[in-house]
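Colleagues,

For the teaching module next term, I've prepared a clean inverse folding example: a structure given as tokens, and then the sequence designed for it. I'd like students to try predicting residues themselves before seeing the answer, so please don't circulate the second half yet.
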């Protein structure tokens, strides 16, 4: 190996790339799983969302003259279920916001005070609207921090007015924190108004009591499945759905999202690992090729060693050891490169990638296995050469 350093380095290059790819891609896949899990945890894994319209029943019920819908009365009925800590209706729509010279389009949610408790939304300043404000359809709004910064930069937003589609709403509170919501929006970008004010001034529904969805939170000491069954039973009874007819609503829970997301991210991690393994396989084939060339070039050396007493097993171990050393050394360099790649990705601040000790251990073990597997055939071929033939070799 020392006599042909350039060739050894080039041979090692395939293993370096392969191991670096495997370790980095597996780390990215693992980090992706943790990232998705963290994001879903923020949304609340005991949250249930009910939407109008079944998967395959909308057309059937429309033909029958019944339009699938949810109402504030459905939310009130669900709020009484012992398996839930609460349920709250919501309306949503995209509207133009303006204040002073600033204007922007944003999602506006019409909610009740119960939604703040269910979604664990906290206030940074000001107050929430009350049930009395909901009953009075008061034109007041609670905004996220980014909205406050955009429309009331370096000024106190409380008591000021923001126009939503030219309807003035008074700012009474500013939400604390930031983070993604189930609909993809950020909590810092939320614009929340009383659901009755949204219905009266912004969002027109077929019936005043209709809502876009109902959010519910399962009790921590009870099974989420039990809460789902309670919701289905209650809504089917309220909507007078016959025993054999399908639901006219869809029920989704964050836990199922988390399970699906984990399966997808595990599949992506496996796919990324396989892509890296293919690189490693190509590197291993390169090592076998170079080791075969090395055996041919060193035929006389092998003959001399065997002539002075070296056993075939010793020759086999010599070439096998050279193959393993190349692979392990290449593997360590590949791990260092992967660590650099992970640090570079993490430094962007958008996605944290960490190499685990287990991943490094697997990479080193895999590199050793590649060295043994692809080095065995050339080593075995060298050990089976006859000393006389080797000494005659030119």
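(Answer key — instructors only)
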């Amino acid at each position: 190996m020392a006599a042909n350093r350039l060739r050894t380095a080039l041979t090692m290059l395939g293993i370096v790339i392969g191991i670096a790819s495997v370790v980095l891609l597996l780390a990215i896949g693992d980090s992706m799983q943790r990232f998705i899990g963290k994001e879903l945890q923020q949304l609340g894994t005991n949250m249930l969302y009910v939407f109008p319209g079944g998967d395959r029943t909308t057309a059937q019920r429309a033909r029958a003259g019944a339009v699938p819908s949810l109402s504030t009365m459905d939310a009130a009925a669900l709020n009484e279920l012992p398996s839930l800590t609460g349920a709250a209706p919501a309306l949503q729509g995209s509207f133009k916001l303006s204040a002073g010279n600033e204007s922007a389009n944003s999602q506006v949610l019409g909610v009740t005070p119960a939604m703040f408790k269910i979604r664990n939304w906290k206030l940074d300043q000001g107050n929430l609207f009350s049930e009395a404000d909901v009953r009075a359809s008061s034109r007041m709004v609670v905004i996220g921090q980014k909205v406050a910064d955009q429309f009331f930069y370096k000024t106190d937003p409380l008591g000021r007015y923001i126009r939503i589609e030219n309807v003035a709403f008074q700012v009474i509170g500013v939400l604390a924190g930031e983070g993604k919501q189930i609909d993809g929006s950020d909590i810092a970008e939320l614009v929340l108004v009383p659901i009755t004010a949204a219905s009266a001034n912004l969002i027109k529904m077929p019936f005043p009591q209709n809502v876009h969805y109902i959010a519910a939170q399962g009790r921590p000491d009870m099974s989420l499945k039990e809460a789902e069954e309670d919701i289905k039973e209650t809504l089917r009874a309220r909507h007078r759905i016959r025993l054999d007819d399908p639901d006219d609503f869809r029920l989704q829970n964050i836990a199922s999202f988390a399970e699906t997301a984990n399966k997808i991210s595990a599949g992506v991690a496996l796919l990324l690992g396989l892509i890296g393994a293919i690189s490693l396989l190509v590197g291993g084939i390169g090592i076998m090729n170079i080791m075969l060339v090395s055996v041919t070039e060193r035929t006389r050396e092998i003959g001399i060693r065997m002539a002075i007493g070296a056993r075939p097993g010793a020759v086999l171990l010599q070439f096998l050891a050279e193959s393993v050393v190349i692979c392990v050394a290449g593997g360590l360099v590949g791990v260092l490169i992967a660590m650099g790649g992970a640090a570079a990705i993490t430094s962007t601040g958008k996605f944290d990638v960490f190499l685990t000790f287990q991943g490094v251990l697997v990479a080193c073990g895999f590199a050793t296995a590649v060295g043994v597997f692809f080095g065995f055939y050339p080593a075995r071929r060298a050990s089976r050469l006859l000393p006389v033939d080797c000494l005659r070799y030119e």
